[in-house]
Amino acid sequence: MLGVVLAFHAWSGPSDAMLVPRIVLTLWSGVALAITLVELSRVTGTGSWPLSTLPVLMGAVLIAAIAVASLGFLLASLPLVALTLWLFRLHRPLPMALGTLVIAGGLWFLFHHVLLIRLPTLLTSGAL
């Protein structure tokens, strides 16, 4: 354990900008896998299979992540945000539409204009 701490201390920093997001994504995926395993163990014990929001949301995130390459970030994130709001029991149409546009558009604006992280785009002009 001490060797790992010393190795991190002696390390001069990331070699590229994607190292820290990859570490966070790995940790996030590990936590999601652990939660899924706990949910599956509870289902196995009861014998019934209720549709939990976690597997639905995880599947939607996977589909959106794959769709980003061809649709761009903004168009791929709109259905994902709408589904997330629906799963969090926001069923009224106007607040869900406004929330979807504000959250997905706000994330795009934050990454693209504030943090200057260029996200995948649908159009070559970078409009989306």
From TrEMBL:
Q: Hydrolase among the record's keywords?
A: no
Q: Does the keyword Transmembrane helix apply?
A: yes
What keywords does the record list, in alphabetical order?
Answer: Membrane, Transmembrane, Transmembrane helix
Where the record annotates domain DUF1468, the positions are 6-120
What InterPro entries does the annotation carry?
Answer: DUF1468 (IPR009936)
Listed transmembrane segments: 20-40, 61-88, 94-116
Any Pfam family the entry gives: TctB
Instruction: Using the record, list the residue span of the signal peptide; answer none if the entry has no such feature.
Output: none
* Domain of life, per lineage: Bacteria
Q: Which residues form a coiled coil?
A: none
Name of the protein in question: DUF1468 domain-containing protein
Organism lineage string: Bacteria, Pseudomonadati, Pseudomonadota, Gammaproteobacteria, Oceanospirillales
